């Protein structure tokens, strides 16, 4: 009679042999796929292609260098020796994903997975029927009739921002603008989402919510490029993981307390919704699908947390780089200032009707977002094969869409390093592939809040140009840091001079 231990050993050995054979066969398939694309670099037997880059900054530098050398439309690397990773960086390949409804890459080892504990199943990371339902429920929150009153909020927030920058610059010194701009856009989000006026710009980095959001976003991107932190069991045993859990709990409580208080207030007096300006939270609480079912507090919290994070950080990046471009290109700045004077005259505040009249500023903002891509990349997880030429990537793989690569591809923009807003003039833009400029992504999963963001950017720039001339600190080093958004590693320094 065969003993139990022998049976167990036989089963385990057979399973391990089967897994080994499966891995060998699968690895050969992956290797074939990898070889049919442009490699990100030579492959190390252990580290794969990761020895070419150690962080997001060095990855971007390396990827853009390879793109310039090879003019590739799709590149691939290896995450250690285990499995390949894929990057699309040209309209021809990016559109295969962007015009589909492929879900965000949120499986094990994929980029959006690190957001889940913080942002939950909001629009950024959800998929399937839930994403479709919530996208439909949230769309009315960004209707023009809802966006129009927000212009008053943009003006109030910008007043505080400009006064703060001037107080630090009036003695003739250069001032770092990215930090204060980030606080201002978060202030805007909190006011528009919650009608919350908690002195974010006054308290600055000392505000606990500001500190929490900044550290959570940093941790998410660090975890993404550190494979040994992928497993939750490992991550939450680390000091960084424990801090992440604590900060996540804090931001959830911050949002949940406001949501519960607002829901109770509306239930007590429903008529108040007709008496005041609706904010994002009001609209979410009132939203109903075709069955009459609303969103749970957990769903609302996920959408609010997503709106606060995604809305303030990306917009802050765009505004910061726009200020940098104003200072770097003085002729563009004066052209824009003349347009502002023509549109708003001697008025101080920007009005809703002004936004559509700032036509050259629209071109300028587009060129800023092309040149400095506020969102460097997005990612998708394949549910069906991705076929491009002889390359067939099977379902289950994550594919990064390198938006900054598309915006600087030498075959799409031969003069990609030249700052030229005129390239977005109507007659020129009509000839360009619609997927050649995708700062807000594109297709069914594009950014639902892009008009909100563009309006805010216009108000801030118009108010800045109306009041100041901006000069660049030529001695300050600008290093691009592709965090969750495109940042300047050492900040952006300018001097403000009254007009």
Automatic annotation (TrEMBL):
Cofactor: heme
GO terms assigned for molecular function: heme binding; iron ion binding; monooxygenase activity; oxidoreductase activity, acting on paired donors, with incorporation or reduction of molecular oxygen
Binding site for heme: 447
InterPro entries per UniProt: Cyt_P450, Cyt_P450_CS, Cyt_P450_E_grp-I, Cyt_P450_sf, Cytochrome_P450_Monoox
Transmembrane segments: 6-25, 78-98
UniProt keyword annotations, A-Z: Heme, Iron, Membrane, Metal-binding, Monooxygenase, Oxidoreductase, Transmembrane, Transmembrane helix
Family, as annotated: Belongs to the cytochrome P450 family.
Protein name: Cytochrome P450 4A25
SUPFAM superfamilies named in the record: Cytochrome P450 (SSF48264)
């Amino acid at each position: 009679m065969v003993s139990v231990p022998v049976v167990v050993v036989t089963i385990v050995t057979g399973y391990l042999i089967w897994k080994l054979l499966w891995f060998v066969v699968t690895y050969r398939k992956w290797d074939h796929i990898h070889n049919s694309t442009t490699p990100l670099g030579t492959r190390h037997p252990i580290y794969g292609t990761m020895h070419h880059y150690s962080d997001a900054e060095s990855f971007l530098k390396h990827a853009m260098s390879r793109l310039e050398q090879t003019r590739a439309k799709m590149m691939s690397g290896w995450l250690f020796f285990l499995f390949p990773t894929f990057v699309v960086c040209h309209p021809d390949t990016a559109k295969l994903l962007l015009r589909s409804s492929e879900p965000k890459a949120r499986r094990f080892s994929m980029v959006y997975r690190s957001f889940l504990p913080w942002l939950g199943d909001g629009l950024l990371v959800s998929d399937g029927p839930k994403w479709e339902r919530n996208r439909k429920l949230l769309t009315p929150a960004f209707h023009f009739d809802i966006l129009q009153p927000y212009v008053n909020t943009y003006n109030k927030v910008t007043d505080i921002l400009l006064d703060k920058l001037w107080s630090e610059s009036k003695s003739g010194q250069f001032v770092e603008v990215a930090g204060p701009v980030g606080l201002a856009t978060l202030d805007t989000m909190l006011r528009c989402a919650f009608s919350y006026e908690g002195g974010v710009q006054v308290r600055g980095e000392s505000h606990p919510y500001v500190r929490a959001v900044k550290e959570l976003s940093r941790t998410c991107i660090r975890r993404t490029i550190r494979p040994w932190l992928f497993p939750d069991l490992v991550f939450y045993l680390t000091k960084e993981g424990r801090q992440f859990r604590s900060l996540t709990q804090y931001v959830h409580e911050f949002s949940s307390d406001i949501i519960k208080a607002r829901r109770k207030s509306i239930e007590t007096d429903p008529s108040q919704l007709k008496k005041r300006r609706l904010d994002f939270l009001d609209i979410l609480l009132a939203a109903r699908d075709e069955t009459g079912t609303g969103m749970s507090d957990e769903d609302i919290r996920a959408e609010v947390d997503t709106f606060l994070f995604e809305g303030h950080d990306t917009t802050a990046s765009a505004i910061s780089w726009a200020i940098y471009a104003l200072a770097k290109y003085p002729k563009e700045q004066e052209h824009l200032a003349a347009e502002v004077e023509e549109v708003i005259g001697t008025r101080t505040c920007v009005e809703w009707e002004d936004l559509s009249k700032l036509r050259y500023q629209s071109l300028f903002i587009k060129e800023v977002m092309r040149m400095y891509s506020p969102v460097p990349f997005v990612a998708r997880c394949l549910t069906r094969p991705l076929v491009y030429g002889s390359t067939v990537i099977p379902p289950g793989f994550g594919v990064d869409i390198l938006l900054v690569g598309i915006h600087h591809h030498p075959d799409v923009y031969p003069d990609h390093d030249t700052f030229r807003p005129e390239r977005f003039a109507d007659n020129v833009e009509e000839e360009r592939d619609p997927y050649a400029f995708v700062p807000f992504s594109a297709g069914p999963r594009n950014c639902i809040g892009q008009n909100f963001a563009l309006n805010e950017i216009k108000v801030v720039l118009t108010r800045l140009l109306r009041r100041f001339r901006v000069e660049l600190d030529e001695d300050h080093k600008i290093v691009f840091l592709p965090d969750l958004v495109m940042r300047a590693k050492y900040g952006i320094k300018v001097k403000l001079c009254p007009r």
